[in-house]
Amino acid sequence: MVKHHNADIAVLRLSNPVKIGPSAQTIALAKYAPPAGAQALLTGWGWISPFVKEAPIILQGINVTILSSDECTDEKIICAGSKEKTACKGDSGGALVVNNQAFLNDIAVLRLSNPVKIGPSAQTIALATYAPPAGAQALITGWGKISPDVEEKPIILQGINVTILSSDECSIFPWLYEKIICAGSKGKTACEGDSGGALVVNNQVVGVVSTGKCDGPTKYVSVPYYHQWILGAVDELYL
Where along the chain do the CATH 2.40.10.10 domains lie? Predict the structure, then answer.
């Protein structure tokens, strides 16, 4: 019988502060356990296989699925992974990160060094003030991969029609319902390189690509939720 270590967690104080930058970032602590079926990222320096008894020199990561309480009965424990996609020896203490928590407030406003010339290939678009209902049709555009199996990215802007999903269909935490819009399905979704792209409903931007997989729904930062913040950020940039 497998026994879990009771209260197997600790907080450390480092002798020297970590330099925050591209290779080291802070991250929010979750307040609620993720629902079964949610996608998570597992990272660590452990063995990449039980048959390869050497630790990697580059941080490894893999996407795993959160399991149900029936598969993991201890309320103090969250279970995730499968036989082929899981942690291994040396990964103890590594983080299990759910995308919703890792990409909170994943939105920015940029001021360009030169203005964009408005014309046939570049137009302005309105910002939505209300989130679209589940079932609404939307358009996503981007320069990302057209398939998870095709490494080359397109040289022409791509676009596809997708359906807005409900929060339940996209495993969104309750406290993120207003902040995240979910859309797409396997074969009709955003992919690697589409981050920051627009989700458009009725000629208004309702979302910005945040996170997801190339073979399933994508999570978008809700433009209606951040509408006032966006306008305030624009005002500050032009003071």
Answer: 1-102, 126-229
Q: Report which residue type is found at 125.
A: I
Backbone angles phi, psi at 155, to 5 degrees: -100, -5
Tokens 């299990």 correspond to 96
pLDDT in the model for residue 75: 65
Decide: helix, strand or coil at residue 236. Answer: helix
The DSSP call for residue 118 is -
Superfamily of domain 126-229: Trypsin-like serine proteases (2.40.10.10)
Tokens of residue 170, six digits = 């996209």
CATH superfamily of the domain spanning 1-102: Trypsin-like serine proteases (2.40.10.10)
- How many angstroms separate the CA atoms of 204 and 214, rounded? 24
The predicted-structure confidence for 140-189, as pLDDT tens digits, reads as follows: 999 888 887 787 888 899 999 999 998 777 766 555 668 889 999 888 89
What pLDDT digit, counting tens, does each position of 22-54 carry?
A: 567 777 787 777 777 777 888 887 887 777 777
Residue 223 in contact with residue 205, Cβ under 8 Å?
yes
Name the residue with tokens 């600790």.
10
Residue 101 has pLDDT above 90, yes or no: no
pLDDT (0 to 100) of residue 23: 65
Q: Are 186 and 193 in contact (CB under 8 A)?
A: no
Q: What is the DSSP string of 120-182?
A: TTB---EEPSSPPPTT-EEEEEESS-SSTT--SPPSS-EEEEEEEE-TGGGT--GGGTTTEEE
Do 49 and 88 form a contact (C-beta atoms < 8 A)? yes
pLDDT of residue 100: 47
